[in-house]
User: Which sequence fits this backbone?
């Protein structure tokens, strides 16, 4: 398997595959962060998570069109505005969904799964009706195109670097909000003991709504980042939902660190295997390994030690 | 659930008679062979729905991977039929005659070892029942022995469905890839594509369906069925009472898998092909939708739910393809929010209750004209029965 390559080539291949894995890792982390908040913290299974992500991608695409038409001078910076809009759109829809649907189902987690699946079907059809069935690609601003040559055999894409930087930024922001801010403390209090949190004066319904909105908003940002590296169609979200759930479960549902660690493991394993096997076999092996490990360690990599 | 320990209560006997009348007499007389074959296709999903009533409704184990077992059953059948269809005479033009056409296209020169035993019909039938059961046993034993349940089980079965689909699509030479196994012709020399054969297959399927209904009813009425319900309600209590909870769950999951596999095998016979689009996540969740719409606690409800949702799917997607997904999504949300027990719940709470009141009033001889003439009771019941 290694015979045809020299040692230097192999090193370069590993670095490049690792870089490809890092891009995949960024997408996984962004998608899984939102889900880790919604599923890990609130216990709600949101099967429409992928559709919230796609909403962010479509908002980004719309913004890029608007900038191209009316503000071509500012095109270089459209992405930052698009990202904010994607966050607001997905977060707003998320809060609406929480109010209309999810809050009636907190006691029945398996039913949230079914109801949000229905929601995802409706959203998919809505995207298809509004934006058409064809995939939409965003035109990147000039500074994001091209790649950076590090050595003669190793080069990295600038848009990939940008997505990674974005991931680091968003992850730190989420960690700060959850673990340092007053509101994050309220979220954790509600998660740990809803009744007691209510008794000490936290408005649990409001916390639920904003938590769900935050999770969906992050999904929107993930979709926004996703347009940098791929095109968007009405059913793109569904392709990622199983991977994302596995990332969250594998990491240990309630742990943000675990989510990041498992996203890293899974994406690196998959992209390294992809080089040696066909893409589908790499995916099968990775998923099998995850399912196998989950059978041995159902609580995931990083489990909170709590009494149930 | 009633406390009636009898195998079939009077109501269930009646429901069964109505279903038999509908499937054996009314539908074959009322529909042409094309529509009847569609009903036959819908009914293959009813097998899955019965399994889901047992394992999800009664046992509280939600599996989002029933498509896996449906597919395993279907593929076992399809492999047998494909081998029969690719005899040496039929495949003369291939570079390697005697192997299925898709293998030839993928440069395979010999039949893979796991295809060899599917030359035998007896082996195929055994495989249809045993392979899914074994697979379900492995998954179930690994999960339930370690007390993984609920949401986690749902996600992992979903991942299994994803894995199997990717595997089938990826290994084109062995499985036919994304197109699946197509162009199936005969079963032991009997052409399954003719109208006459489809008619006979429909009745075979109905007989099998009633076999599965009785088997599921037997399990639900037995002590084991009661333990399943107890487990769904309070798992720890059952465990503290000395029962090995995991084994009961594994059994329910395996039984559901076998039902699904029988449905899958019948699907292959009725429709004439099998492809990965019936294995993956989307079909698996749709099968759960049928069960939820019909009523997760009622076998008959689930069967009617399967027929109704599929019928609606066919007619809506023929006339308003745009609206269909909206309709399905909305239906699903509505069922979950407002009617967690589905059609069967509506029937029991509204129609049957009123019917019961009406009957008892009639029996007591106090048939006030005002009450009897009121719309609702009689007409609704008739409407529902006519479904």
Assistant:
């Amino acid at each position: 398997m290694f015979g045809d390559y020299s040692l230097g080539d192999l090193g370069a291949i590993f670095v490049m595959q690792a870089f490809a894995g890092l891009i995949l890792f960024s997408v996984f982390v962004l998608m899984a962060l939102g889900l880790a908040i919604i599923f890990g913290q609130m216990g709600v299974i949101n099967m429409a998570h992928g559709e919230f992500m796609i909403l962010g991608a479509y908002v980004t695409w719309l913004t890029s069109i608007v900038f191209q038409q009316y503000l071509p001078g500012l095109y270089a910076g459209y992405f930052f505005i698009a990202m904010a809009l994607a966050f607001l759109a997905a977060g707003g829809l998320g809060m609406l969904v929480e109010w209309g649907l999810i809050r009636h189902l907190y006691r029945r987690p398996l039913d949230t799964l079914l109801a949000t699946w229905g929601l995802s079907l409706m959203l998919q059809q809505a995207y298809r009706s509004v934006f058409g069935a064809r995939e939409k690609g965003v035109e990147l601003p000039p500074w994001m195109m091209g790649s950076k040559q590090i050595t003669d055999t190793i080069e990295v894409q600038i848009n990939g670097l940008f997505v990674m930087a974005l991931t680091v930024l968003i992850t730190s922001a989420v960690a700060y909000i959850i673990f340092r801010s007053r509101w994050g403390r309220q979220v954790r209090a509600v998660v740990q003991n809803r009744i007691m949190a209510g008794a000490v004066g936290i408005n649990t319904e409001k916390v639920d709504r904003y938590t769900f909105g935050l999770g969906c908003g992050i999904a929107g940002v993930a979709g926004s980042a996703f347009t940098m590296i791929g095109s968007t169609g009405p059913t793109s979200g569904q392709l990622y939902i199983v991977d994302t759930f596995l990332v969250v479960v594998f990491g240990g549902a309630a742990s943000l660190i675990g989510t990041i660690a498992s996203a890293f493991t899974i994406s690196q394993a998959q992209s390294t295997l992809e080089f040696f096997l066909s893409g589908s076999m790499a995916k099968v092996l990775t998923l099998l390994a995850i399912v196998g490990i989950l059978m041995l360690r159902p609580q995931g990599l990083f489990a909170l030690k709590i009494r149930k | 659930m009633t406390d009636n320990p009898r195998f079939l209560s009077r109501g269930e006997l009646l429901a069964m008679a109505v279903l038999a009348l509908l499937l054996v007499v009314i539908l074959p007389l009322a529909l042409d062979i094309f529509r009847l074959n569609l009903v036959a296709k819908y009914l293959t999903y009813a097998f899955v729905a019965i399994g889901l009533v047992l394992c999800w409704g009664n046992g509280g184990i939600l599996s989002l991977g029933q498509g896996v077992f449906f597919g395993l059953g279907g593929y076992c059948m399809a492999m047998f039929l494909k081998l029969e269809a690719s005899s040496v005479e039929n495949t003369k033009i291939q570079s390697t005659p005697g192997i299925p056409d898709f293998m030839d296209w993928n440069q395979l020169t010999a039949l893979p070892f796991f295809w060899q035993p599917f030359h035998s019909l007896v082996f195929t039938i055994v495989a249809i029942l045993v392979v899914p059961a074994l697979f379900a046993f492995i998954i179930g034993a690994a999960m339930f022995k370690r007390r993984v349940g609920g949401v986690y089980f749902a996600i992992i079965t979903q991942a299994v469905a994803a894995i199997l689909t990717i595997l089938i699509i990826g290994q084109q030479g062995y499985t036919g890839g994304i197109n699946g196994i197509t162009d199936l012709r005969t079963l032991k020399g009997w052409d399954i594509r003719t109208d006459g054969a489809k008619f006979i297959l429909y009745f075979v399927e109905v007989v099998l369906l009633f076999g599965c209904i009785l088997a599921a009813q037997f399990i639900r009425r037995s002590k084991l069925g009661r333990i399943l319900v107890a487990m769904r309600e309070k798992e720890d209590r059952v465990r503290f009472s000395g029962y090995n909870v995991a084994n009961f769950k594994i059994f329910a999951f395996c039984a559901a898998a076998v039902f699904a596999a029988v449905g899958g095998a019948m699907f292959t016979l009725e429709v004439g092909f099998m492809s990965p689009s019936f294995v993956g996540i989307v079909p698996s969740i749709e099968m759960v939708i049928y069960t939820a719409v019909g009523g997760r606690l009622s076998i008959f409800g689930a069967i009617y739910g399967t027929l109704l949702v599929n019928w609606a799917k066919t007619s809506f997607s023929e006339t308003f393809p745009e609206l269909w997904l909206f309709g399905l999504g909305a239906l699903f949300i509505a069922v979950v929010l407002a009617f967690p027990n589905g059609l069967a719940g509506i029937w029991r709470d509204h129609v049957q209750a009123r019917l019961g009141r009406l009957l008892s009033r009639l029996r007591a001889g106090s048939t006030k004209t005002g009450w009897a003439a009121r719309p609702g009771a009689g007409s609704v019941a008739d409407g529902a029965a006519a479904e």
In short: Residues 195-221 of chain B form the longest helix (27 residues).
